[in-house]
Specification:
Two copies of one chain form a homodimer. Chain A is of the alpha+beta class. Helices cover about 25% and strands about 30% of the residues of chain A. The model of chain A is unreliable at about 155-169 (pLDDT under 50).
């Protein structure tokens, strides 16, 4: 795909996330894209992302749905506002709730496709539905309720983040 | 605590889980214990388990609730059957659904306490409620619906698992 991933538009402060931050070298670094009115991300679990031998760990599946869901919420909010994702102020979302139904065991060793669509945008809240598939078969479905980080918190959070990073580093 | 953790009773086949398997050197290796009628696990996230600077990644929180939930389901099933956890056949549970409400940002750098209780045991299904707290404050609450792996699947799964492990190794 020639599009830039949603996550590659995030300001540095929001790019440390273990699931989707481009600056987190230990993390999953998932990348989400538009595909018409849906969004899609692909991730191939590592051999140690195991539940029982041969199958993917459910916590990883939840993580993929979570990060692809908040990324989708951000992209949809920009689209609804008629804005490009690299314009200020940044529209970023945090997860208020996450629900995952595990429909069948997810095979390990193949790419997983996470697809999402926006079920509702209402004020600062975006509800995202997602599926996770392996080899064309839906293995899990989920819903993310994402809430926009208030603009007035962004500079405060940024300052706090820089302080915390110094403590970590 | 002088108890042995639930996860340390799991047969080897069930001990590769990224969240709680004692044999997964890359994983979280959480340990769950009885505390009266509740269960408890403690986990200190690593610095890279970050959402935004200073706060814990939501996918990790979901993972901790998931694995502590299925561990609690197993322990409760043994207790309900009046059996010790090291008796055969093993009672093991998989997650059918996972729900997490993120109530407030979870601070990074301190131990997290995951507490769970059994809401319902009905047939092969156990519903577990859980909270995740930092410094005495509940940051997330969740529910895990866990379903027992059928006994007749255990030998088949074990065989399949050994084959898959050879492929991985």
């Amino acid at each position: 795909m020639t599009q830039q991933a949603f996550q590659d538009y995030y300001p540095d402060y929001f790019s440390h996330c273990y699931g989707c931050g481009r600056l987190n070298e230990h993390g999953l670094q998932i990348k989400s894209y538009w595909d018409g009115d849906e969004t899609v991300a692909t991730y191939t679990p590592r051999p140690y992302h195991i539940a029982v031998p041969g199958y993917v760990y459910g916590g990883l599946i939840a993580s993929l749905i979570d990060c692809h869901g908040t990324g989708t919420a951000a992209a949809a909010a920009y689209r609804a506002a008629g804005r490009e994702m690299d314009t200020e102020p940044p529209l970023r979302f945090l997860t208020a709730s996450l629900h995952v139904d595990y429909l069948r065991p997810t095979p390990l060793g193949v790419p997983l496709e996470i697809r999402a669509s926006v079920k509702e945008i209402k004020g600062r809240k975006v509800v995202v539905s997602a599926t996770l598939s392996a080899q064309g078969e839906v293995c899990a479905q989920g819903e993310v309720i994402a809430v926009q980080v208030p603009e007035h918190m962004l500079p405060g959070l940024r300052g706090e983040g820089e302080q915390d990073q110094r403590q970590d580093g």
